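Entry for the shared binder. Reason: the reviewer on the internal report wants the predicted structure included alongside the sequence.
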Amino acid sequence: VQLQASGGGLVQAGGSLRLSCAASGRTFRNYAMAWFRQAPGKDREFVAAIRWSNTFYSDSVKGRFSISRDNAKNMVYLQMNSLKPEDTAVYYCAADDRIIVGVIRDGYAYDYWGQGTQVTVSS
């Protein structure tokens, strides 16, 4: 599986962005898809994931971000609303077809990663 993330940019606090991740492969629907982010000087952190129709969020983004997928287009999206300066980071999409719910928030559990897309939120 190859992943291509896009949609990052510069936005003011309180604004919105939608990230997209295009995936190759004919069995896309079988893959759990996730978004992680990494801010300068910080560890990579889980943001959101979707497995079949089930969604998972970190506490820091719950209620503000929404993950969705379009299996017909092999796409996964991250709608980010009410953005805060602390959301500034490089955002990565990840995929795996053998992941279990218990580790869906763990980056090490994902075999496939896209390149990052920068999100910068100004105050």
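Summary line for the report: The first strand starts at residue 3 and ends at 6.
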